[in-house]
């Protein structure tokens, strides 16, 4: 009778599997039923934790070579990889395939074995550890709480979060002198007050991701936004002034590029150029 009542009250929710489950637990005594429900509850909590943690790094849930972390949309991967003709290991982010590397963390200090971990260190920072648990690379944020985690976003950004407050403590897209590909929503920026800038850094070759001499950054002169390519500290090439739609120094950059780029002052001293996703 109870089952029929439920079926009448919730016709969509009750199916054959539910009927069998209800019949099964009805035949059990209270203690066995309680035990079974406890097991199911623990299993559900575990599965929920796994589903939440697929794009998250913590001190207990980290990446161990050769494991990888994939963004929820499946477009970006974070993990360990080797350069061509090398057994050394780097941690990086790539887009769909390793042929399109976006960002390399330990580019100038690769691991010489496959025993590395990418984790949250004891001081709360993101860190790459070698097989001897020595820190090879760190996000190097000072004076932070140790209650932190890292989130890998759908557009390839990796952020370090304070779990208690939810504040972003560090993120790839705001790091100065990083070598990566410019992706939608990632910004080339310069702060007019501090002079601190976020740059694209060149690689020595498509197969050697260590830092080379060239960089690309945003510049503001006479309230005009430009983008320069530098050879160390010398101007190598100018893209030309930004007129709100295109860079005027590129003759082939016609109206077809309108709405592809955005350049603006955020009101906090930062001049940003970025691709609209």
UniProtKB/TrEMBL annotation:
Enzymatic class: transferase
Keyword Glycoprotein appears in the UniProt entry: yes
Spans through the membrane: 20-49
InterPro entries tied to this protein: Bulb-type_lectin_dom, Bulb-type_lectin_dom_sf
SMART domains: B_lectin
EC number(s) recorded for this UniProt protein: 2.7.11.1
Keywords of this entry: Disulfide bond, Glycoprotein, Kinase, Membrane, Serine/threonine-protein kinase, Signal, Transferase, Transmembrane, Transmembrane helix
All copies of domain Bulb-type lectin, residue ranges: 54-173
Any one GO molecular function term: protein serine/threonine kinase activity
Stored Pfam families: B_lectin
The protein's name: Putative non-specific serine/threonine protein kinase
Origin species: Medicago truncatula
């Amino acid at each position: 009778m109870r089952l029929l009542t439920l079926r009448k009250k919730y016709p969509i929710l009750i199916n054959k599997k539910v009927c069998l489950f209800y019949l099964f637990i009805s035949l059990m005594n209270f203690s066995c039923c309680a035990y079974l429900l406890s097991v199911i509850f623990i299993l559900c909590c575990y599965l929920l934790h796994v589903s939440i943690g697929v794009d998250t790094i913590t001190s207990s849930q980290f990446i161990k070579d050769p494991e990888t972390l994939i963004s929820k949309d499946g477009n970006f991967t974070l993990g360990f990889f080797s350069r061509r003709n090398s057994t050394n290991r780097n941690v990086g982010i790539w887009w769909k395939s390793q042929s399109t590397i976006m960002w390399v963390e330990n580019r100038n200090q690769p691991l010489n074995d496959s025993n590395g971990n990418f984790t949250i260190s004891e001081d709360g920072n993101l860190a790459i550890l070698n097989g001897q648990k020595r820190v090879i690379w760190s996000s190097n944020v000072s004076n932070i709480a140790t209650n932190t985690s890292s989130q890998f976003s759908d557009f390839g950004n990796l952020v370090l979060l304070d779990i208690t407050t939810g504040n972003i403590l560090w993120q790839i897209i705001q790091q100065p002198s990083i070598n990566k590909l410019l992706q939608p929503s990632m910004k080339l920026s310069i702060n007019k007050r501090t002079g601190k800038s976020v740059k694209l850094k060149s690689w020595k070759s498509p197969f050697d991701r260590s830092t080379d001499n060239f960089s690309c950054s945003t510049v503001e002169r006479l309230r005009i936004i430009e983008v320069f390519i530098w050879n160390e500290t010398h101007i190598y090439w100018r893209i030309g002034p930004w007129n709100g739609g295109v860079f005027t120094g590129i003759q082939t950059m016609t109206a077809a590029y309108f709405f592809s780029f955005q350049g603006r002052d955020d009101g906090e001293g930062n001049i940003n150029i970025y691709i609209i996703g």
